[in-house]
Design goal:
By secondary structure, the chain is an all-alpha fold. It has one domain. It has helices at about 5-35, 40-65, 70-75, 75-100, 100-110, 110-125, 130-150, 155-160, 160-180, 190-210, 220-245, 250, 255-270, 275-290. The longest helix has about 35 residues, at about 5-35. About 50% of the residues are buried.
Amino acid sequence: MSSSASSTRRLVLASLLMSGAALFWALNYQVASIALAEMTPVSLTFWRWLIACGPLFVLAWVIERPDWRIVARRLPQLVLLSGLGLLGYNLLLYWALHFTTPIGAVVINAANPALIVLLAVVLTGQSVSRRGVLGIVVSLAGVLLVLSQGSPMTLVRDGVNTGQLFMLGAITVWSLYTIWGRVDGVGPITSTAVQSAIAVIALSPWAVSGHAPLPTSQAGVLGLLLIAALPSVGSYVLWNTATSMVSSAAAAVHLNLITVFVVIIGVFRGQPLSLADLIGATLIIVGVVMTSLAAAPPKHLR
């Protein structure tokens, strides 16, 4: 098989993995709003990672057979990543959902790909091709079309509320998590497993002091289990695996698929699908493909 064909297969696989992660995170937006009716952001974050921790370590052992000596040497980086991606992002997202709707949160999340690319250029000197930049622009145009339903001025009139400010913090820490997410010598599943254990240890004082209540209703319990299984285990394993294969710029644009999947979930829940939704979803997917297949030249913008 030629190097070009192998590279294309690698990009396609990474794109599929990141698309799956985006789908599970879209579920997190909807389901978390149900669980948060009975739980605090701290308790939801603690219990989701406590439940997910065991399965993650089993998967890591079966699939990656980690060298724990290397893991121990990478512990400072893993602590940083856990604080950014597993604690920081989720706590800020859940606090945001106390003040705004999932759609309000998604509006800010749409800026995440551009922020990742900007920070990657500033912090690592990573370059991005013109096609990659165009892909991001096309995807953002699709997100704006979906959220505004064809009238962008509605977004301007809404202003920025407390929930959206929390989301600005969330996408900032997630951008750093994506850029610094590669851990040399440690597999992506092992990395996620260790980060989950660190998150549980960090939040244990709140749990021991009684500040991490479990949900009592059937809907709350099912919501917690779903979040632990898909957005926690599924999304992070898929995302960390994919970001070990492609650049931060190629990974970034896939976050816009969260908006597409929120729309699809809404259809299954009986919400109407407008022409703006269909056109916007198409633009986002086109942008994802353009960025995924764009080869970035070294050191400069082509």
